[in-house]
Q: What sequence folds into this?
């Protein structure tokens, strides 16, 4: 249980009693920076949290900088939680707060891996918290009223929050539901047929396949879970987020996309899927420098821009560079007849010159470093999916 006990002690006292009434053992972590007086024991005090951030509570107070204080206490709380995870001391995390308190809680929860439930009762649930949540499995619940003293509404919601985190932390997966091994796969609307066929073939072999939509947060989530050791192999069919990162599209997964499997020693097959496109929102949001480019309205709020020869040369080199020095087997498969649903002969994004530039850059950069296999098929052909699965299973051996 973590939060600012200095300003919300009454609320946290009630949460603690509610958790203990449900049979929970609780570690109380105080992330407040002001003098604190509460009627329950604090297991990790504010001095320890401040020190875990690399500073001291005295220095934070003297700075008189609220924003910096929130940042540092969030960092310190994350370090405390990370240590508790390593020591196998927690099976759930819960916090409550307003704007600053919520930031601290969500920042701290970044240190807790998938599967350990994370629950935050907050006054700012209606706000866009996507950056603070990141790729973590965090559950948010609106406090409705401010977390500022008990009343009939707050008592009800705090008790519900306590019941929720208790039920979540007590939930176990039936061993009978566990599968042979886990495989991550990336997908897009433009590669759905390929991913569906790969999933069908892998499931027939007894593998569990988890698909991640390449929407920026999807790719970032997949990378994060690879680093947490969730997967045994990766079938990266849809690396389109690299194009958004290069061209300023709205679905970038950041500069670390396509690095986790190589660093963690996870076998992977990589495809330049949907590198023919960059994603923007409505047509009128398109940057002016791209207005003369080949565009396609995939949906009213999705505008696709066709990548050109120069961009494809860069993307091909970047893709290979990210795989250099991989600690486990890796191969790149090239679907020579098109890399997306709308990149086939006669379709809207078909551009043989741009595709040739992409494939050429990949082969030239990979020469002698990363195996490259050319497949005379379109990315959504069943033959290509079959080749992907065959090569992945071979690498996993």
A:
């Amino acid at each position: 249980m973590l939060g600012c006990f200095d300003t919300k002690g009454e609320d946290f006292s009630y949460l603690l009693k509610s958790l203990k009434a449900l049979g929970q053992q609780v570690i109380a972590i105080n992330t407040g920076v002001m003098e604190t007086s509460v009627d329950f024991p604090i297991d990790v005090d504010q001095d320890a949290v401040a020190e875990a951030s690399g500073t001291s509570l005295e220095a934070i107070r003297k700075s008189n900088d609220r924003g910096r204080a929130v940042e540092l206490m969030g960092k310190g709380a994350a370090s405390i939680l990370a240590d508790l995870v390593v020591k196998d001391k927690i099976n759930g995390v819960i916090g409550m707060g307003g704007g600053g308190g919520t930031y601290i809680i969500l920042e701290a929860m970044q240190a807790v891996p998938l599967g350990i439930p994370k629950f935050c009762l907050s006054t700012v649930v209606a706000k866009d918290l996507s950056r603070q949540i990141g790729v973590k499995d965090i559950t948010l619940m609106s406090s409705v009223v401010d977390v500022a003293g008990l009343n009939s509404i707050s008592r009800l919601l705090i008790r519900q929050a306590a019941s929720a985190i208790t039920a979540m932390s007590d939930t176990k997966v039936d061993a009978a539901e566990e599968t042979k091994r886990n495989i991550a796969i990336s997908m897009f609307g433009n590669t759905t047929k390929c991913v569906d066929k790969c999933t069908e073939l892998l499931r027939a072999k007894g593998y569990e396949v988890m698909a991640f939509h390449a929407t920026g947060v999807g790719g970032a989530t997949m990378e994060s879970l690879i680093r947490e050791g969730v997967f045994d192999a990766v079938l990266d069919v849809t690396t389109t987020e690299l194009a958004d990162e290069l061209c300023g599209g709205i679905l970038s997964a950041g500069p670390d996309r396509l690095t986790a499997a190589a660093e963690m020693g996870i076998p992977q097959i990589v495809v330049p899927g949907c590198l023919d496109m960059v994603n923007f929102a409505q047509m009128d949001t398109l940057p002016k420098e791209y207005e003369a480019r080949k565009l396609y309205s995939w949906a009213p709020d999705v505008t696709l821009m066709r990548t050109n020869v120069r961009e494809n040369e860069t993307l091909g080199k970047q893709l290979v560079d990210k795989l250099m020095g991989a600690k486990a087997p890796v191969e790149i498969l090239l679907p020579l007849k098109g890399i997306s649903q709308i990149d086939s002969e006669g379709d809207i994004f078909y551009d043989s010159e741009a595709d040739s530039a992409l494939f050429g850059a990949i082969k030239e950069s990979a020469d002698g470093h990363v195996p490259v296999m050319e497949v005379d098929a379109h990315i959504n052909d069943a033959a290509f999916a079959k080749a992907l699965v065959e090569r992945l299973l071979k690498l996993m051996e």
Q: What stands out?
A: Residues 245 and 255 are 7 Å apart (CA to CA). The chain has a mean pLDDT of 95. The longest strand covers residues 182-187. The longest helix spans residues 66-86.
